[in-house]
Amino acid sequence: MNKWDWVNGHGAVRQEATEGIVSTGYTLNELGRAGLIEPQRAADFRAQTGLADFAWRVFWPGAAGEGDRHAEAMARARGFVLFMHGWDGSQAIWEQIPALVCAANPQLVALAADVNGFSGSPFADELPPVEACDPAANMAAIERWLELLGLRSSPRATSRLRIITLVGHSMSGAALFYLDEARWRPHEVGRLAVAPALLVNDGLRKSFYKALGVGIWAGSTTDALGWLKTRLAPSIVEMLIGAASRAVKDEHARIFNTTPKGVLAQTFFAMGKIPRQVKPHLWRHFHVVLGHKDRLVGVKPMLDLLEELGFASDQVRVVLGDHYHFSVSNESRRLHLRNRGTLIKEILSLHEACARRMA
């Protein structure tokens, strides 16, 4: 049986709000129990990443109830688009965007993963080491997972090469800067960093991230500071999320309440610490989208950093909106609805640019 023929109870095939797009949920451990992933390879993944499991959802064009078409969609896909969420989030924060990408280009299959200790991809330890929580470790885990699933073209393949487009928000946007490019063909991968929390030269925000990370952990271990984890931290998160949809805000609240505070603390602290250097070079097929009112990622420090790293003007876009400038609420509909369309066009454009160069 092909692993993509299997539909688990965690996320049965269902019709998406986007007409003609269906999706399936998977977890690494459930695939292992079904005999669809070698136990040793799954164990190696868990040991290398520190994660106890890994969860994701796949989106592809089809009809509800036609689970057998999933394997066909995976086999004929000309490329995959992988969505990676930010801190205290899950794959659900992308809402309809993965499905809309598949609707716009039926040759693409989209995957939205839970990453870095959140939702269906928890760490094995409730207080993981910072080195396992930082953006570089997040990226390394994603690369190992892609290899585990065999989504990349074979090293021996010379035709119908598949393009992988990585879309990362906030914490995962920062992770994209740590991709191990030496392991990829020159035009095999595209990257879109959405409001990346790469705070290398933003001293003020680095201090804030580290302080709140320490505060979340202190509040979880000290009764006297219990108010910080139950009131202050969620209030700060709500404020910084800004004009995102109610569904996104509710998802953040759910994740905050169900994630070990040690994981919340270490992953937030790690973004401020950023111990791993990012060096200037040619950032092929890499675009960045920033929001002009983003309070978590400063536009001016980020633009200065991108200039220092060697990005060109046509690789960077600033849109009107905040940290969740792609999430549409009643409050943000005028600006964010257009931004969502812009994001989808950027994703499709990156895929097409890679495909042209790979041809």
Describe this structure in words.
The chain starts with 13 loop residues before the first strand and ends with a helix. The model is unreliable at 1-17 (pLDDT under 50). The protein has a nine-stranded mixed beta sheet, with helices on both faces. It has helices at 28-33, 39-49, 69-76, 97-104, 130-133, 135-149, 171-175, 203-221, 226-241, 246-258, 261-273, 299-309, 333-358, and strands at 14-15, 21-27, 55-61, 79-84, 108-113, 163-169, 189-194, 286-291, 316-319. The chain is built from 13 helices and nine strands. It has a single domain (3-358), classed as 3-Layer(aba) Sandwich (Rossmann fold), CATH 3.40.50. The relative contact order is 0.13. The chain is an alpha/beta fold and 359 residues long.
- The low-confidence parts are 1-17
- What gross morphology would you assign? globular
The share of residues in extended strands comes to 5-15%
Q: How do the strands of the widest beta sheet line up side by side?
A: 1-2-3-5-4-6-7-8-9
Care to count the β-strands? 9
Gap between N and C termini:
32 Å
Helix segment tally? 13
Computed structural class: alpha/beta
Strand and helix order: EEHHEHEHEHHEHEHHHHEHEH
The CATH superfamily turns out to be Alpha/Beta hydrolase fold, catalytic domain
Mean pLDDT across all amino acids: 85
Count of domains: 1
The largest sheet is: 9 strands, mixed
CATH architecture heading: 3-Layer(aba) Sandwich
Question: CATH class, please?
Answer: Alpha Beta
Please estimate the helix content: 40-55%
**Rg from C-alpha positions?**
19 Å
